[in-house]
Amino acid sequence: MEILLSPLPFITYHSQFPNLTFKIPIYIDLDQPLDLILKITFYIELVILIPSMIILSYFVWIVFTLSLLHRNISFIIVLAAIHFNISGVSRFYILLVQLDFIEEHPLALLFASFSRIEFYICAIGGYPIVAFERFFATYYVSDYENTTRNWLLSIIILVHTILPLPLAYFTLMTDYPLIIALGGSGLAVIGSQIILHVLYEFNVNESLKMKKNPMMYTLGKKFQLEENLHVMWILRGVGIILIFLALILVVILIFPWKSIIGFQNYTDFYCSIDLLLALSSILLPIFMGHILYVKGNPGFLRKTQWIFGKSKKSTLPPVKDVVIRDETRLYFTQLEMSWR
User: Fold this and answer.
1) pTM (global) more than 0.85
2) Of 3, 165, 203, 338, which sits most exposed with the smallest number of CB within 10 A?
3) Per CATH, is 2-339 categorized as 3.30.2090.10?
């Protein structure tokens, strides 16, 4: 419990020119000799950072250009990719300094540290922002897909870009207990998970009501309800993964590793977090791309055929006549009831 009440595991950097004191999210002192495990960890992360940024950016470009998701969610993903790439370049610079490939420069370290901390905040805040967006997708379910609401997109961009700035500055220039950061992150994820669960159940009920009452049926509402359920089903799964990872992190922090293993600090564990972030940015696009490829998404196959060679035929099932007849039957049922 002592480590949870200690300051964030960032190293304080004191610069003579200009006269600055700030934190570097590098977890070890620049003057501290690196042991073999840390060197291996840093080298692996250094090697995979650039490919991770390229692969993630390419996948996000495919998702955005194909309009696989609603415009607002697509913009959130693009913003997240931009933050990740800026943070990745910053982390690449910090690693070069840490491994003594280049000499540190105070202002460069300041900018790199600021952007890195901002990325951490944006990564945690992105989940509540998506829950916020899905709330409006549920509230405006009848015309959310067809109506452009620039004010909502503007709020999403401002919250996701501007709000982390003062928090990043506060983290960079001050000390506060680690439990505040973990507690705030936990509340954001768990609170968003609860909101998404409530919204999911509400959309399920609306879908059932629409099937029972043909007068409520519209193609736009049917499509938006299906999209809401699909997206929120995925998001709830992501939330469970985030909570599970957070519990693992808490166990790592509070478990008495020092007395059992005998190491002097938690440096190796902290550095492994950044390595996992870099690896996940490679594995996640590959995993999602594999799903799109197996399902035979035509747009994805067209965008990636230069990788796989000749694009395979789409395996998406054709529209069944029974579906068309069902849609027609509901339409005429609704029309008949409106005449009564």
Assistant:
1) no
2) 338
3) no
